[in-house]
Please model this.
Amino acid sequence: MGKTALGVAAVRAQESQRPNSLFDDPYAQAFLDAAPGAFAAEHATANDRRPMAALGAAFAFHGVLRTRFFDDYLLTATAAGCAQVVLLAAGLDTRAFRLPWPPGVQVFELDLPDVLTFKERVLNEQGARPQCTRTIVPADLRANWATTLTQAGFRATTPTIWLAEGLLLYLSAEDATALLDEVGDLSAPGSHLAFERGDIADNSLLAHARTTPSMDQYTALWKGGLGPDTPEWLTRHGWRVDTHDRAILAASYHRAVPDSSSGEFITAERA
Ligand code: SAM
Model:
């Protein structure tokens, strides 16, 4: 099972317990309960504990903020009439179940088969009911996923909202570019695309993580994703781009920004 998806579920479970939480994910804890011991073997040395705690805090802050930002983004775009939503690398995202979608919305969730199998098992056990029409699409986003999505009922002639949350870092620049190219080809005018960009922590913390053995299982997955010229790339490929500074957003949600956090969210509309 995808440990990165489980890590995000842990962040969402914790946030959902806060009195002033930015969202409520009623299924996040169930995923953790269904994968006991998933994080048990991670023993950091005494020297590593402080930087790893700082990295953990940055990851949690980023996960909470982006969940709320993309919740709002999806609800705004669907309320404006865009009824087809594709969650690229949906992981253990439960938006199909927990968001108050307008009538008529269809959500496609793509991820690797083992992640979706685990997700379906837990959601079934929980008796979860989607608040929209929901279709899961097991696929590897590095190859042939567009055909699988189309066979699952996706219509390229309909404006779509694409969300690539917590994904691009795990793809090589080549695979990430190919993915966005394909998304562009499948996007009718008026389609929307969103993802986050930038490091979740400062360079020294990330460098430390890369040399910490207990972090290998995560850092080995970091493939770099898109480069710094992504907004320009999108503009050249037919998208109108907006950027949203993470620190400004955090302030709007009355959340303090960890020192080590930077980065932004990118949203784009197909011209
Ligand atoms: N978007 C979800 C969220 O924010 O909760 C999941 C984010 S999780 C950090 C990254 C997800 O990317 C995992 O669920 C993983 O299985 C998925 N993933 C990574 N590489 C993939 C690939 N080549 N094809 C499909 N999914 C992939």
User: Anything to note?
Assistant: The chain has a mean pLDDT of 90.
